[in-house]
Amino acid sequence: MSDPLTGVRVVSIAINLPGPAAVARLAGQGASAVTVLPPGGDPMEQFAKDYYDELHVGQEVRRVDLKSDAGRAEVDELLAAADVFVTSSRPSALRRLGLDFESVHARHPQVCQVDIVGHPGDEAETPGHDLTYQAVTGLLGEGRMPATLVVDLAGSERAAAEAAAALVARSRTGEGVRREVALSDVSATIAGPRRHGLTAPGALLGGGLPVYAVYDTADRPIALAALEPHFTARLLEVLGIAPEELSRERLAELFAGRTADEWATWAAEHDVPLAPLRPS
Fold it and tell me: What is the CATH number of domain 9-195?
């Protein structure tokens, strides 16, 4: 069976991470993609060249000056044959370039446009990045820098999903539609478990359950996630612990006796969800 998006043509002017990751997702599902970069390129190419290359595998990449008449004409030619248009610029910048949805739709009514913005609606001009979205929604904890750009990447997945939804809508109406992906909304969604107390310190998934926690071993930490009753029962059985003996202290004592890799091998043999922590 062919990939689900085979035959779908994507044009992107999005740089940095959310847009390119979304386009890579669409390309991975069979879409053909042309990424249009400014003359200076994408900052990601300087920050993390290998990652940039990974996100553009199989795509045609062009460098175009959208501030010039020739550059805008080149993108317009691409949009004439496109199904999906991905952007990550502020609305005012798109309007200046004639690439806002109203302008694009008037020239190319078949195009479904996915605009990735920082904040929704009238607040879309407000500047921000992954770090500020995580900060506002409480995802930074005590102020540590995040281990990954979780909002950007979750936003890319949402953008890819919105592109697919827009194509479904077009199949029903015959015309392209606009979908907005606000990264601040994505961050609020990610923060849902914390906001509702599920992962707060000491809560159910915040260290309150001995069977869902991080433990030290003889060399480095492991993560234990024996959350469901059958996994808990299995854990106790293979460790030889009676239910009434289960405690964080008892598990810590046992796990300290072997290395993380030894516990990983043990867990695989006994169908226990456990994994060593990868060094950052």
Answer: 3.40.50.10540
